Amino acid sequence: MSYILVGLALLAMIVRPVAAETVLPRLVVIVDDMGNNLKQGVAAINLPGPVAYSVLPHTPHSVALAEMAYGQGKEVMLHAPMANTARLKLGPGGLTEDMTRQQLQSVLRSSIAAVPYVSGVNNHMGSLLTQKRQKMDWVMDVLAEQGLYFLDSKTTTKSMAWKSAYSQGIPWLVRDVFLDHEQTTEFVDKQFRYGLRLAREQGFAVLICHPYPVTIEYLKHALPRIGEQGIQLVSPGGFLLQQAEARRLVEAQQAERDICNQGEGLCEATLAHQDGSRRSKSE
Predict the structure, then answer these.
(1) Any domain includes 74
(2) 68 within domain boundaries
(3) For residue 281, is it within any domain?
(4) Which domain holds residue 32?
(5) 39: Cα within 13 Å, side-chain hemisphere
(6) Per-residue model confidence (pLDDT) at position 54
(7) CATH at 59
(8) Helix 185-202 × helix 213-222 angle, to 10°
(9) Do residues 80 and 113 make contact, with C-beta atoms less than 8 angstroms apart?
């Protein structure tokens, strides 16, 4: 079952009866760890469709790859390094649990500024820092001021990141499937098929992968075929926009029902106004 935010999950259950015939199951694919290897990064960006690319800050090829992805109409994210329970080295732009608010936010702002065309952020590692609610609130403060969404890579089941984003009104989603923590075609295929099954079952699935040659070669052939299977590939930002539009539709329909519940005359007037609006738009 997906770890997608409670609000979106509940929304999906509400919206499906309204839009079941018009909304295809959606697949969101993000390629992490972009920036260190130019050849692998270029191969990943050349994947077909609206795949998103999460770029490590202050890496040798971060700017070039971000500009290339944006130039091809792809979505660019910041892959923000965060402290992990294994104490693995974070590299430049790392956010740690011993930072003050000013230090953490200064480093995060610098990382965002270092990667052009960023529209969202997800955590690189982070199994320790994402458990710290206060630190995540500090992260979300910066995202709120810069109008960015957050993708929780869900490197721990104890993550507080999505709760922090939700409480601050930050658009967010959560990873469902890691595609390639075993670098074999057989494993990538198994995980990708699992992602497709999740998309059909719950209406969407969020996949994270890396620019490994085996992964990119597999996706090069697999992604063009998902449309034939009735699944739509969308970017993270595109998915969040669709969900926001669906939420507005549900809220508008609820408002109409509330008006109708106040009296038959009000209901008839509302329907007549809607009918007139539709006619004027079609003329």
Answers:
(1) yes
(2) yes
(3) no
(4) 6-235
(5) 2
(6) 98
(7) 3.20.20.370
(8) 50
(9) no
Report the chain's mean pLDDT, rounded to a whole number. Answer: 88
Q: Domain count of the chain?
A: 1
108 domain residue, yes or no: yes
Q: Which amino acid is at 113?
A: A
Mean pLDDT on 41-49 = 98
Q: Count how many Cα atoms sit within 13 Å of the Cα of residue 198 in the half-sphere of its side chain.
A: 20
Among 118, 125, 119, 122, CA closest to 96: 125
* 164: number of Cβ within 10 Å: 25
Q: What is the mean pLDDT of residues 122-126?
A: 97
Identity of residue 76? V
pTM of whole model > 0.90?
A: no
- pLDDT tens across 129-173, in order? 999 999 999 999 999 999 999 999 999 999 999 999 999 999 999
pLDDT tens, position by position, 182-204: 999 999 999 999 999 999 999 99
- Torsion angles phi and psi, residue 207, rounded to 5: -110, 135
